């Protein structure tokens, strides 16, 4: 039997069966969201769009790590309640994100769909965001997805996509995995999303943040990397021994065996 391609493996893993892998991933990846919160003055940016009856679309909501990080690291107490629509092709993700929302975020519609297939009546949002969200969206469907994203935002609203750049860990790791272990459709990059947004008519401003994550705990590293590839069949030892992927992982490891992953995320404001 052939291995399912990237988008299907993503969907298979964003499921109840994939819960332990998701939790292993966020042992390190929670930092991605803290970095996004620290990168901007969210109370002011959101406050400028806030009004009675405002609305927000969270694209590829996953398990809600970004709104959770916002609630933890920013003071949103002055914002009025915002109707929060949850979009994700995984019903598991939508339910997870719904269960963690706190004020001022008030869950409204569950939109179990890909971004590319979002019906056109979902528009007029004051805020649209997609945070570390679009990697498994096939690059050849990115133009359609970007058009939907831009069309969903009310004129003058706040749109932002946060995504790793091509030189960042998630992309370098998956490229090495595809070259050395299993060919697959590549992840989309921040650069690809930026170009697609511009092609869809958005005026995009790019901001970049760099940071590192890491640990000496090999169990944590294994769980994190398995989720980075949506493949829990490979042990860390097998990944380290694989062609191309092994070289990349060696470049992330010091002589004591501690792993450090280098990240660069682009915040694409539109
Ligand atoms: C890493 S999670 C996103 C994390 C999330 N933004 C958060 O704050 O926790 C990636 C999500 O993208 C979803 N996804 C994959 N392909 C998608 C697509 N084409 N359109 C929308 N969402 C997609 C997956 O089902 C998964 O739930």
Q: What's the helix-strand series? A: HHHEHEHEEHEHHEHHHE
Helix content percent band: 40-55%
Q: If you consult CATH, what is the topology?
A: Rossmann fold
Name the beta content range.
Answer: 15-25%
In CATH, what is the homologous superfamily?
Vaccinia Virus protein VP39
Architecture per CATH nomenclature, i.e. the level-2 architecture: 3-Layer(aba) Sandwich
Largest sheet: 7 strands, mixed
What is the typical, i.e. mean, pLDDT? 97
Secondary-structure class = alpha/beta
Poorly predicted runs: none
Give the count of structural domains. 1
What is the 3D shape? globular
**CATH level 1 class label:** Alpha Beta
Instruction: Count all strands and give the number.
Output: 7
Query: Can you list the strand order of the major beta sheet?
Result: 3-2-1-4-5-7-6
Organism: Nocardioides nanhaiensis
InterPro entries: Methyltransf_12, SAM-dependent_MTases_sf
Domain Methyltransferase type: 57-158
Protein name: Methyltransferase type 12 domain-containing protein
What keyword list fits this structure?
Methyltransf_12; 41% helix; SAM-dependent_MTases_sf; globular; Methyltransferase type 12 domain-containing protein; 270 residues; Rossmann fold; seven-stranded mixed β-sheet; binds S-adenosylmethionine; alpha/beta
Q: What does this entry look like structurally?
A:
- The chain is α/β, with parallel strands linked by helices and about 270 residues long.
- The protein has one domain: Vaccinia Virus protein VP39 (Rossmann fold).
- About 40% of the residues lie in helices and about 20% in strands.
- The chain has eleven helices and seven strands.
- The protein has helices at about 5-15, 20-40, 40-45, 65-75, 90-100, 140-150, 170-180, 190-200, 220-230, 235-240, 245-250; strands spanning about 55-60, 80-85, 105-110, 125-130, 155-165, 205-215, 260-270.
- A seven-stranded mixed β-sheet has the order 3-2-1-4-5-7-6, sandwiched between helices.
- Helix 6 (about 140-150) links the parallel strand 4 and strand 5.
- Helix 6 (about 140-150) packs across helix 8.
- The mean pLDDT is about 95.
- The structure holds S-adenosylmethionine.
- S-adenosylmethionine binds near residues 7, 93, 115, 131 and 132.
- Pfam families: Methyltransf_12.
- This is Methyltransferase type 12 domain-containing protein.
- InterPro entries: Methyltransf_12, SAM-dependent_MTases_sf.
